[in-house]
Amino acid sequence: MQVFEQEQFRESFEVLIIVCSAVLLTLFILVIILFTLFQKRKIKLITDRNKAELQYLEEVARTQLEIQEMTLKNVSWELHDNIGQLLSVANLELNVLLKQQEPEGVAIVSEIQSLVAKSLQEIRELSRSLNKEVINQLGIIKSTENELTRLEKLGILKTSLEVSGDCWDLPQDDNLILFRIIQEFMTNVIKHAKADSLKFIFNYLPGELHVQVSDNGVGFDIDQGYSSSGLVNMKSRAALLNAHFDLFSEKGVGTILNIRYLQK
Question: For 118-173, how does the pLDDT look when each residue is reduced to its tens digit (9 = 90+)?
Fold first, then answer.
């Protein structure tokens, strides 16, 4: 009888252990499931927040770009329609004056007329470089070539442009944004680099466009440079294109900009 009770107690104890183990295992599984769900929800919230922040920053950048483009367009119109017209009228009046001059005054008036004509041509070229419709019509290569030609005429820099691969057209918005990055880099070179040469390389690959711009200027500290508005503008515009943006500079050596654009 005692043996039977001991056997029954042992079996009851084993059942109790099994039940307790099952309960603990179930609780453990529930904790894991709840923790996993919590982590997934947390990750989703973080992802959604980061996505919202990125969209907000992109929208801010696009709005800034639109405002800048409208400003540049207005400046372009002012240059072409107002200042350009005034210089055209001045050129016509100089033509009239030239016919009335004595031989000794002809050379002076002709020189003034030549300066006015050059100024008028420069204003027209500058107006085209500011007008997004003209940039999109010409494309990235021709627009860059025109800008480099303008710098050459002004005697600011010696420039070179190399294009390799089979060229393909960028979407108009991307074409404009990429050209504005290039313009920003050139502006920084003129203002800060103290360079005498500027080199552009466009390498067209299937589905990719690699752009490299380099100067032989004084260079700068990258960490400090990224606080400047010009570099921030270039980087934010590259982000709008989902393009890889890499800037390398070393004091006394120069600066190199690399952009890797993926075809859409």
Answer: 776 667 666 666 667 778 888 899 989 988 888 887 788 899 999 999 999 998 88
- Which residue intervals of 78-102 are DSSP H helices? 84-100
**Cα 76 from chain centroid (whole Å):** 21
Q: What is the value of pTM for the model shown? A: 0.61
Backbone angles phi, psi at 130, to 5 degrees: -95, -15
Answer whether residue 211 is part of any domain: yes
Q: Is 139 helix (H, G, I), strand (E, B) or coil?
A: coil
Quick check: is 135 in a domain? no
What is the phi-psi region of residue 194: left when phi exceeds 0, alpha when psi lies from -120 to 50, beta otherwise? left
User: What is the b/e burial string over 77-105, where b = at least 16 CB atoms within 10 angstroms of the residue's CB?
Assistant: eebbeeebeebeebbeebeeeeeeeeeee
On whether both 66 and 176 belong to a single domain, the answer is no
